[in-house]
Design brief:
By secondary structure, the chain is an alpha+beta fold. The chain has helices spanning about 1-30, 45-50, 60-65, 85-100, 150-155, and strands at about 40-45, 65-75, 80, 85, 105-110, 115-120, 125-135, 135-145.
Length: about 160
C-alpha cells in the first residue's frame, strides 16, 4: 500500500517539479534582463497563438500550440558586475539549475572559442534552453511549454528557427 501511495504522489507532483524548473529559468532571466548591455526579447503566448493561426501546415500549427513562450537574453562582452563579466555570473546561475538530474544536455557543439549547448527538462512540460557562448557575447534562448520529442526534433532540424 505504501508503494502505491508513493507512486500516486510522485505522479501528482511530477508536473509541479517540471514547472518549478521552468520557473527557476524564468527567475534567472528576469533577474538579469533589465541590466545595461543586456538585450531581452519575450515572445508571449498571444503572439505564438497568432502565429499558429497563420497559413501553416497542420504539423507547424501543432508544434506552435505546444510552445507557451520563448525568451531570448543576450549579454554583450562588456557587460560587467563589479569586475566580473556578467555572462559568467549568469552562466553560473544557470548551471546551478541546468546541471541537475532534472535536465539533460542533448547537444554540445564547440567551434573554436564558440560553444553551443542545448538542455531540456526530462519531463515533457518544461523548458528547452540553448546557451551560446563566445568571447564577445553570451545568449540564452529558452522555449517553454510541452517540450516533447517533436519540439526537440523541430529545433534540431530547423523546423523552429532561432536566430
Amino acid at each position: 500500500m505504501k508503494k502505491v501511495l508513493i507512486i500516486v504522489l510522485a505522479a501528482i507532483l511530477c508536473p509541479y517539479i517540471a514547472m518549478a524548473q521552468a520557473k527557476q529559468i524564468h527567475l534567472i532571466l528576469d533577474k538579469y534582463e533589465k541590466r545595461k548591455k543586456v538585450e531581452s526579447i519575450i515572445i508571449s503566448p498571444a503572439v505564438l497563438q497568432m502565429a499558429g493561426n497563420g497559413n501553416y501546415n497542420a504539423s507547424t500549427k501543432e508544434l506552435l500550440s505546444k510552445i507557451s513562450e520563448m525568451r531570448i537574453v543576450n549579454v554583450k562582452e562588456d557587460a560587467v558586475e563589479g569586475t566580473t563579466p556578467l555572462r559568467i555570473i549568469i552562466r553560473d546561475d544557470l548551471d546551478k539549475v541546468l546541471i541537475s538530474p532534472k535536465f539533460s544536455r542533448v547537444l554540445k557543439m564547440q567551434d573554436g572559442e564558440e560553444l553551443l549547448e542545448l538542455f531540456v527538462t526530462k519531463e515533457s512540460d518544461g523548458v528547452l534552453v540553448f546557451l551560446a557562448t563566445s568571447p564577445k557575447e553570451f545568449a540564452v534562448i529558452s522555449i517553454f511549454g510541452n517540450i516533447d520529442k517533436s519540439v526537440i526534433n523541430a529545433v534540431m532540424t530547423g523546423g523552429i528557427k532561432v536566430k
